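Homework help board

Subject: predicted structure for assignment chain

Our instructor gave us this sequence and asked us to write out the predicted structure in token form, then describe one feature. I got the tokens but I'm not sure how to describe them. Can anyone check?
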Amino acid sequence: MLPKTLLLLCAAALGACHETPPPGGHPPSSGHPTAPPPTGTGAAPTATAPGTVQPTAAPTPTTAASGAVPDKLEGPYLLTYNQTGGIAGLHMTFVLDTNKRTATYSGLRGGSPETKDVTAAEIAAITQALEAARPSTFAPVKGPAVPDAFTYAVALDYGGKLALATWSDGTPAPEQLVTLREAIVKLRDAKFPARPPVSGPKQ
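My token output:
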């Protein structure tokens, strides 16, 4: 389960369309009666054939709530933390759903996700760190490429408003963002402790 999160906002609205009446307002030469041209400011149905009326298209709703994510979170949210890369090429995804009060983790290599319940106190700790990191300022942190570095991504969905912060080892990420990552990893490791290997290395 990956962050639907890693996501760009887009919003589109399409106005209603209508058929343009013939020039000069004269009816077609076929001799069949047609509906009169629309009047007023609203869109009206147009006749395409005798006895057949085609309705106008409805506007398409926007796909996400507009505006930036506030720094003060007073409602449920979906938080996705991604950590990828390293020498071993790991891919770890952790998702906190405060509405369902669940945490989901896919393991070190993006395997089958496992979900567990979280407490109100655990959610409060993440929310505190999240607000301190100021989601309204989330953005990619750019820096020089570092071999075998980890790349981090924190994606927040707050009532349809989305915020995304990304950075890598070696980049000067804000201290509050690093603190947020540490809080997320602490909760992740507490809920999903690493399992010991089936057998130890050969002597």
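Reply (TA_rk): Your tokens look well-formed. For the description, you could write something like this. The radius of gyration is 27 Å. That's the kind of observation they're looking for.
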